[in-house]
Amino acid sequence: FTMDALLKWAILNGATINEDAPNKDTSEASRQKLDPAVIDAILGKPASVQMAECMDAVEHSETPLEGREIALDDLEMLVENIDNASNLEPLGLWPRVLKLYADPEPSVRTGALWVSGTAVQHNPAAQKAFSSHNGLAAALSVLEEDRDMSTKTKALYCVSSFVRSNVQGLTELVGNDGFSVLLKAIRDGSNALRQKVFFLLRSLIDEALDE
Questions:
Q1: Measuring CA to CA, which residue among 160, 140, 154 is closest to residue 207?
Q2: Please, which pLDDT band fits residue 210 given cuts at 50, 70 and 90?
Q3: What long-range pairs does 168-176 form, CB within 8 A, spacing at least 24?
Q4: Which residues 6+ apart lie within 8 Å of 165 measured at CB?
Q5: What are the CA-CA distances from residue 208 to residues 21, 76, 115, 161 (Å)?
Q6: Contact by Cβ (8 Å): 46, 67
Q7: Is 96 exposed, middle or buried (0-12, 13-18, 19+ CB in 10 A)?
Q8: Number of other residues whose CB lies within 10 A of the CB of residue 127
Q9: Based on the number of CB atoms within 10 Å of its own CB, is 85 exposed (0-12), middle (13-18) or buried (19 or more)?
Q10: Model confidence at 12: pLDDT above 70
Q11: Using CA atoms, how far apart are residues 148 and 155, in angstroms rounded to an integer?
């Protein structure tokens, strides 16, 4: 859309009866012919459309790395909303997000894990969907095997978001030998990663004692 088109729309629809406004027929025709892109600019695209567009941008072969990173940042902000996070499954986006865990670019892997961790945090519907796609096993694999420390840290964030205050998530952590992965992260990780693992373990202990 163009700024001219947006300005014309504002003039046509903001004029009052006392102003030099176009006649009714002209205004109605203008509304009908208004570019959908202008409507999107005024009202905003639905979140579901924005989420799908973010994933399309990340996956498109011609999107530069910076553009992919920005798209993942945008998607992460969108899934901070619990309804948007729950819509990852009906939109068919979970398999696409999880596939990015194996992307050649560390920043893309990191962004995908960040999206996942934010989406599943305190969200039973998103947790259930994540579980159905074996998301925890995939995140644990990244935590254990990835060589990029930032990516490993976001993998831990994803694991933590899924298992805390989530009995089913904790059960899956045990079933996937997740505590061995966490201990390996303490042994081989950076100081920052170790501290985060210790914090997660302490949180899980506190939750168990509270029950």
A1: 160
A2: confident
A3: 168/127, 168/131, 169/127, 169/131, 169/136, 170/204, 172/131, 172/136, 173/136, 173/140, 176/136, 176/137, 176/140
A4: 122, 207
A5: 69, 30, 27, 16
A6: no
A7: middle
A8: 25
A9: buried
A10: no
A11: 11
Q: Tell me, what amino acid is at 202?
A: R
- Kindly report the pTM of this predicted structure: 0.81
What DSSP line would sit under 140-200, residue for residue?
HHHHHH---HHHHHHHHHHHHHHHTT-HHHHHHHHHTTHHHHHHHHHHHS-HHHHHHHHHH
Place of tokens 């947790």: 127
Nearest-CA neighbor of 179 among 163, 190, 165? 163
Please tell me the distance from the alpha carbon of residue 1 to that of residue 110, in angstroms, as a whole number.
33
Residue positions counted in the chain? 211
N-terminal to C-terminal alpha carbon distance within the chain: 56
Asked whether residue 33 carries a pLDDT value surpassing 80, the answer given is no
